[in-house]
Amino acid sequence: MLFGLSAALVFVLFGCTVGPKYVRPTAEVPAEFKEAAGWKAAQPSDALSKGKWWEVYQDTQLNALEAQINVSNQNLKIAQAQFLEARAALKISRSGLFPNVTGNASATRYQQSHNRPLFTSATPTTYSDYVLSADASYELDVWGRVRRTVEASRSEAQASAADLATVDLSLHAELALDYFGLRGLDAEKALLDSTVVSYEKALELTKNRYQGGLASAVEVAQAQTILDTTRAQAIDVEVQRASFEHAIAVLIGKPASTFSLASLPLSTPPPPIPPGLPSDLLERRPDIAAAERRVQEANAQIGVAKAAYFPLITLSPTGGFESGVITTLIQGPSGLWSFGGAAAETLFDAGRRRGVSDQAIASHEQFVASYRETVLTAFQEVEDNLAALRILEDEAKTEDAAVAAAEHSLALSINRYKGGVTSYLEVTTAQSAALADEVTAVNLLTRRMTASVLLIKAIGGGWNVSQIPHV
C-alpha cells in the first residue's frame, strides 16, 4: 500500500503535460493609423469613459436611454446567460482534478435455505448485514489531460466574457446610431417645416400678384407645386423617424407601441475622438480578445488529444464498516478497506486518436487565422471611420459655403421677381437648390455623428482586456 501511494504521489508531482505550450499568435500591427496623421490632439474631457463611452456626447437623453440597455435588452441577457453557461462548464472541468467519492449505506436481513449445498447446523441461517462505506475513484492526471481540459474551459469562459462585452458594445453603439439618426431626421423635419412656412408666404405673394395682374396662373401653379412637394418631403421624414424610434424601443426592451421620443433636432458636431495607438487596439477590442482566447482553447485541445496516446491511470480506494449487529457497526473491528489502481491503454483504434489529434491541430490553425483576420478587420474599421470623419468635416465646410451661396441666390431671385425682372421659375429653381443644399448639410451632420459612434465602437468603446474575469 505504501508503495502504491508513493508511486501515485510521484506521478502527480512529476507527471508531464503533453501538447504544445501556448504562445499568443502574432499579428501585423502598424506603427500608427494612416488617417490619424495630423489628428487634433484630444483634450482631457474628450477621453472615453470606461464603460459609459456615450457620455462623451454630453446628451442627457442619450445617457438615459443607454442606461436602460443593461437592464432590459434581451440580446444582452442572452449573452450574459451564455457566459454563465461557459463558467459552469469550467466548474465541471475542474471537478476532474479531484476524486469522485460515493457514499454507500445498506441494511440486509438474510434467510438462507436449509437445503443449500454444504449446509451445516453450526452455520446460522438467519442473520443481518449492515454496511456503511465510501468508494473513491481518482484519475491521476499524469499526462495533463485534465489540466488541459480545464485550460480549454477557462479560455472558453474568458472568450465568452469577451463575447458578452462585444454584444454590450454593439448594442450601445446601435442605440447611439439610431438615436443620432432620429435626431438628424428631427433636424431635417424642422428645416422642411420652416421651409414650408416660407413657401406658403411665397405662394400668398404670388397669388396677390396674380390678382393684381402682375403674375400668371402658371406662376401660381409653380408656387403651389413646390409647396406641396416640400410638404410631402416633411411627411415622408416621419416614416423614417418612426422606424428609428421603434428600433430604440426594442433595444431598451420596451414595446414599440408604448415608447416615444420628443423631437430634438441635431445641431452640434461630434466631439473629437482620440483613436489611440494601433498597438493599443489589440487590448481594447473585446472581439480581438475573444478570438485570442479561442486560440488558447484550441491549443489546449491539442494537449487533450495528445494525452489519449498515453495510459489512463486511476486509483480506487474503498473504506467503511460492516457488521451483523447495528450496535457494533461503528467500531474498530468492523472496519474494512481496500486500495487498488488500474492502468488502461488503447492498443488499437483504427486511427481514431490520430484523427482527433489532426482535427485539433487544424482547429488551432483555423482560430489563429480567425484571430489575425479579426485584427485586420479592426484596423480597417478604425481607418474607415477616421477617414469618414476627416472627409465629412471638409465636406461639411464646403456644404456650409454652398448653403450660404444658395440662400443669397434665392434672396436675389425673390427680389428680382418682386421687381418684375424675372419669372417665378427662377425663384422655384433657387428655392429647390437652397433646400437641397440645406438638407445635404443636415445629412452631413448626421453622418458625422454616426461616423464618430462607429469610430468609438471600432476602438473598443473604452473597454480593456483587463476587464476579462479571472475565472
Calculate the terminal CA-CA distance, rounded to whole Å.
38 Å
- The oligomerization state is single chain
Total beta-strand segments = 6
Shape: elongated
Strand content: 5-15%
Query: Which CATH class of the largest domain applies here?
Result: Mainly Alpha
Q: What can be said about the biggest beta sheet?
A: 6 strands, antiparallel
- Radius of gyration equals 38 Å
CATH H level, superfamily name of the largest domain: Outer membrane efflux proteins (OEP)
Query: What number is the mean pLDDT?
Result: 91
Approximate helicity band: 55-70%
Number of helices: 9
CATH fold node name of the largest domain: Outer membrane efflux proteins (OEP)
CATH architecture of the largest domain: Up-down Bundle
Number of domains: 2
Query: Uncertain runs with pLDDT below 50, 5 residues or more?
Result: 41-46
Give me the secondary-structure category.
alpha+beta
SSE string, helices as H and strands as E: HHHEEHHHHEEEEHH
